[in-house]
Amino acid sequence: MANRQLAENRADRVIIIVGLAVIALFFGWSAFRFLCDDAYIAFRYVANSQLGYGYVWNPPPFLPVEGYTCFLWILLLDFVWTVTGVEPTISSNWLGLGFGIGSVLVTTRMVCSIPFCSKLSPYRDVLLTIVMLGLVTNATFLTWTSSGLETSLFNFLLLAWVASCFTTRPNSRISVLAISLSSSLLALTRPDGLLFAVISSAIIMAEARSTPTRRRVTVFRFALPLVLPGIHVLWRYSFYGEWLPNTYYAKQVAAWPQSGVRYLTSFLLEYGLWFWGGLALWCLVVILRAGHFEYRTALRAPGQMTRALVLIAIFAHLSYYTLIIGGD
After folding, report:
1. Which of 65, 139, 181, 244 could form a disulfide with 225 if both were Cys (CB 3.0 to 4.6 A apart)?
2. pLDDT tens-place string over residues 102-148
3. pLDDT digits (tens, 9 = 90+) for 169-184
């Protein structure tokens, strides 16, 4: 009975912390809300679709050109306009706020899933408060919950993918479905999301090898969402005549690490991430030195290959934008 009461009290505290974070997010979103000029590219494609021309920049007799890099976002804006009559200039920022709230909820789940020992468990609420405070005071996060772009959607899906890989039981049907679906939606949202779809395929293949043969068919059946990016790529080639969006060929000429390193350094300084990164590192060192974090058990736990591949994917994504694209 006492344990149940403690669990209920903890749930109440989590709800209060998250509720305050969502309120802060709303006011931050209101303060930073804007529409980026690039968003009107997507809006034009949606408008042409509403006129019956499909996702084209110019109607016939002009040939279709894929000048956007956010297919799923365009589908979503088009769907909302069709169902509700609300145009993308209005719906996009409200959708961005919704996905921002989703990011808060997914982050909360990950924090609550950290394997602390009994001595540190009472401090989980403190950690959650610090994480929420860092999130809702981050100007970049608040700014890009609006803008009209797909950034908030991509961030939410990426967090959902990481959470699926880190907080679900390996080899379970829910785990395979969550990993495959979130990574597939990432690939449909932006072309660089294909990286996470490829990594997810490797994760599922690796986990399937440790699964009894009779269950492998079930595992692969729940991984079927991974065929969606392939279908989209084939549709893109058949409709636009190119394997990648036109913007990729227009912008990507050669690697530009000099710009990327300066961009990343400026970003860390301007938004104070050096402080939060230093604080996180200090907390990690304190926890490890105290011996309270059960890292030895965690390292031997199932799913370590999955966690390693997740870290590789995130590092590769950051490195690509920093060293190849030159910052973004």
Report:
1. 181
2. 999 999 999 888 777 667 677 788 889 989 998 999 888 999 999 99
3. 656 778 888 999 999 9
